[in-house]
Write a structure and sequence with these properties.
The chain has 332 residues and is mostly helical. The protein is 76% helix and 2% strand. The longest helix has 27 residues, at 2-28. It is globular and about 85 Å long.
Length: 332
């Protein structure tokens, strides 16, 4: 009896410590916003800052922002699609075709940058609308639909210029989307910030955002609640196409040309950014800042490995292992 009484304080302390650890874990991995992701990003910054003397500099951080701009912009739209329990594999091809459309419009229709921007964004929106319409109206899995449009859009981009790049000479277009800056911040980063702010307002503070969550989380309940799931899903694909068009303008302006063979495989980085940021591939869960952070983690990892002189082949291996481990840890 005396032994059990003497052991009670120690057992209670162990129980309390265990409860505190569980509470901390719940806070860090709370709901659909895994705060452990923020800690992982900070740890990554600390590790690379000690490993490379060039990492902690304003120029390098701006370089990371430029490098991740394309993936970040498209990933904002992909967040809506994945929350709606769909997938879009065509974003890289949509970017290539949108860039070609913008360049050809300024070469053959009007030299105005506005015409180029409308053509590029409009092309992306059309591709997204086709993906959404075929997926929802014909009840074909979006994986297969967008796999087909991936091939078709890339082939069309190669056909319209017979595989040759289209040179862009419009200085206004280049300054607005690629090489200009405002208050020292490069415009690709500013376009990323605009996409993030718009995505936050649309997903978290609008009726459309709530409908996206409902359609992906419980389609049957959403249907009985009067939500037009077909329309909501199609609009998610259109939004992704529009942002792919914006990314195409940024890339074309930075390159001073539109190429039909660019960013092959970018859709994988986009999907990795979204899932790494806490978005569930089973739908109904995700948030914009998580997607942005996922993109920045991948971009920072690429940048740090380059500064350390790691070979490109080994970079792919390390990046793949870290992404899988991070997503698995976050899910756990």
């Amino acid at each position: 009896m005396t032994e059990s009484v003497s052991r009670m304080p120690a057992e209670q302390q162990a129980t309390q410590r265990h409860a505190r650890m569980r509470r901390i874990a719940q806070i860090l991995l709370q709901g659909d916003r895994p705060y452990m992701l923020y800690i992982a990003f900070v740890v990554l910054l600390v590790v690379f800052s000690f490993a490379s003397p060039w990492f902690l500099s304003i120029d390098n951080f701006l370089n990371i922002g430029r490098q991740t701009a394309l993936v970040s912009i498209i990933a904002i739209g992909m967040t809506f699609v994945i929350i709606a329990r769909q997938i879009d594999l065509s974003v890289g091809s949509a970017l290539a075709l949108s860039g070609m459309s913008a360049a050809l419009a300024m070469s053959h229709i009007s030299d105005s940058w506005i015409v180029g921007a409308i053509a590029g964004i409009g092309t992306g929106a059309i591709i997204g609308a086709i993906n959404g319409f075929v997926t929802t109206r014909l009840n074909i899995p979006s994986f297969l639909v967008t796999l087909g449009s991936l091939s078709a859009a890339r082939g069309l981009a190669l056909m319209v210029t017979t595989t040759r790049p289209e040179i862009i000479t419009n200085d206004r277009f280049i300054a607005i989307f690629g090489e200009g800056d405002i208050a020292g911040i490069p415009v690709p980063i500013l376009w990323t910030l605009l996409a993030v702010i718009g995505g936050i307002l649309l997903l978290h503070y609008s009726v459309f955002g709530r409908q996206i969550y409902a359609a992906g989380g419980n389609p049957t309940a959403a249907l009985y609640s009067g939500i037009n799931i077909r329309r909501v899903t199609t609009l998610a694909f259109v939004l992704t196409g529009v942002l792919a068009g914006v990314a195409a303008l940024v890339l074309s302006a930075r390159s001073h040309a539109a190429r039909p063979d660019v960013v092959q495989g970018m859709e994988l980085d986009v999907i990795a950014s979204v899932t790494l940021g806490g978005c569930s591939l089973f739908g109904g869960r995700g948030f914009i800042l998580g997607t942005l952070l996922g993109s920045l983690i991948i971009g920072t990892l690429n940048n740090g490995l380059v500064l350390l002189g790691v070979s490109s082949s080994l970079q792919l291996v390390i990046k793949g292992v870290i992404i899988v481990a991070a997503v698995a840890f976050t899910r756990k």
